[in-house]
Amino acid sequence: MECPNPVPIFSFISFLALYFSSVTLTLSQASLQENFIGWINGNSDVSCPIMKTTFFTPKINVSEFEEVLESTAQNLRYLTKSMPKPEFIFEPMYETHVRASVMCSKKLGIHLRFRSGGHDYEGLSYVSQIEAPFVLIDLSKLRQIYVDIQDNTVWVQTGATVGELYYRIAEKSKKHGFPAGLCSSLGIGGHITGGAYGSMMRKYGLGADNVLDARIVDANGNILNRESMGEDLFWAIRGGGGASFGIILAWKIRLVPVPETVTVFTVTKTLEQDAKRVLARWQQVADKLVEELFIRVIFNVAGTGNKTVTTSYNALFLGNSSTLSDVMERSFPELGLTRQDCIEMSWIESIVYIAGFPSKTPPEVLLQGKSPFPKVYFRDPFPAQERSHLQDSVWDKLARQRQETEQTHGLDQEAVQLHDPVRLDATTRSVRELSGPGSRHDEQEGREGELRTGSGLGGKVLQRQFQQIGQNQDNGRSRQLLQA
User: Fold this and answer.
1) What pLDDT, on a 0 to 100 scale, did the predictor assign at position 272?
2) Which backbone phi and psi does 154 adopt, to 5 degrees?
3) How far apart are CA 79 and CA 82, in angstroms?
4) Cβ atoms of 348 and 363 closer than 8 Å
5) Coil/strand/helix, residue 247
6) Is the pLDDT of residue 450 over 80?
7) Is residue 51 pLDDT above 80, yes or no?
8) What rounded mean pLDDT belongs to the chain?
9) Which domains are delineated in the chain?
């Protein structure tokens, strides 16, 4: 009888090492989650204990973890296996859970990523390629909306989508609306921190221009409102990227009037239909049309064999089709708009139309929080070598402009470091002072935040303000601001 081959001792040791390392890993993850839960229960004033169904980990409930992680992600490139994944996902049920999460992360030395709608194409709200370990705080369960038509205001929690907000407003009134994004699946929390561009911005400004108050959690776990955070921070979170300053819990927004009947249209032009000339004309007149009219251009590739480029002019007009026809005939006849192209509907129906849903889709689709477009892979637009040359040329140009500015104004080398955080508060305050009465910063007019409009703290309006300040040589404070 032959004896079986002995098991090599190194194989047995390797097996034990692998076994204990996997056990340690599992225990470590379980311990981190248990510590997190215990800390939140001990530091939240909500008596109801946290249900474990609000926690999702790749080691314990992998299918639920993947479902939640992928639920709102728009860029499939950031869902590949090679991308870092959070240790676990936590869905807070109450504001104090968010506060306790911040305090816990500092105590345990872990990094937080937090998302409201997850609509960022760079994956910043659910992927961290620098800090590890990290935890994803998904705010989707904080989505309550309180509409006060008498006061013309709404309190909306960060996890609600733009579509939900629009729907709840329309439930209460057919004559009220809010000027925010065109895509109905945007999370309102992060959307407003980026400005919130939309189809009514020419009439009422950005969504960020119509914020009256906010609730945030700062880095120390404090829950702040407009009064307690101060006007500088309140100014910054409305367009300057809220993730840089804290976690947005809710916004108090101002409603705007909308007519009971609005008009939409979509007119498509191909290259054979003189699309280039029409596009050039649109660029000339788009900002000069009546402010009730918003027209955007959507580019597409059409055809299968001989492909061509099409330009679709997608529009919203706050009024009836007869008035719109008169406006277009007078200001933009090159488009060739006809009465048959115009569709009259309610404001909430126009939201569904502009968002890209099929014709006659009921407004209830806005409650689903889903985009009508499939998720796709977004790639870098240029090869690495070309992108490097492009970046070099941009920086060279900026350097030359800075040198010319210093020579013209005689500014100190360090003085023009406007991105210096130490000088930021003084700069923003000075800009407000220089705006003066009658500007959109005038509190009596209730229209603050002009400098925020565009792309946040470094927006085009801010640049225009600095240019105007630089031209005013008689104003001593202007000189001081440029050197701040």
Assistant:
1) 87
2) -140, 135
3) 8
4) yes
5) strand
6) no
7) no
8) 76
9) 25-138 (3.30.43.10), 145-257 (3.30.465.10), 262-344 (3.40.462.20), 411-482 (no CATH)
* Pairs from 192-195 (Cβ < 8 Å, separation ≥ 24): 192/238, 192/242, 192/248, 192/251, 193/237, 193/238, 193/239, 193/240, 193/241, 193/242, 193/243, 193/248, 194/239, 194/241, 194/456, 195/238, 195/239, 195/452, 195/453, 195/454, 195/455, 195/456, 195/459
pLDDT tens digit sequence for 99-157: 999 998 888 888 888 888 777 777 778 888 777 789 999 999 999 999 999 999 999 99
Residue ranges with strand state E in 131-237: 134-138, 145-148, 153-157, 176-177, 211-217, 223-224
- CB-CB contact of 224 with 197 (8 Å): no
Q: Can you read off the two tokens belonging to residue 378?
A: 């977004």
pLDDT of residue 158: 95
The C-alpha torsion from 236 through 201 and 367 to 255, rounded to 10°, is 80
- Return the structure tokens found at 249: 């819990």
**Token pair in block for residue 449:** 């935040």
Element of type H or E holding 232: helix 231-237
pTM above 0.85, yes or no: no
Separation of alpha carbons 370 and 351, rounded Å: 14
Whole-number pLDDT of residue 393? 54
| pLDDT of 432 higher than 90 | no
Q: How far apart are the first and last CA of the chain?
A: 92
Q: Are 234 and 214 in contact (CB under 8 A)?
A: yes
pLDDT value at 94 more than 80: yes
Contact indicator for 296, 197 with CB cutoff of 8 Å: no
200 neighbors 179 (Cβ within 8 angstroms)? yes
pLDDT at 317 over 70: yes
pLDDT, average across residues 8-24: 37
CA distance 430 to 175: 38
Q: How far is CA 221 from CA 39, 97, 135, 252, 466, in A?
A: 13, 10, 16, 21, 35
Sheet bearing 153-157, strands edge to edge? 145-148, 153-157, 247-254, 211-217, 223-224
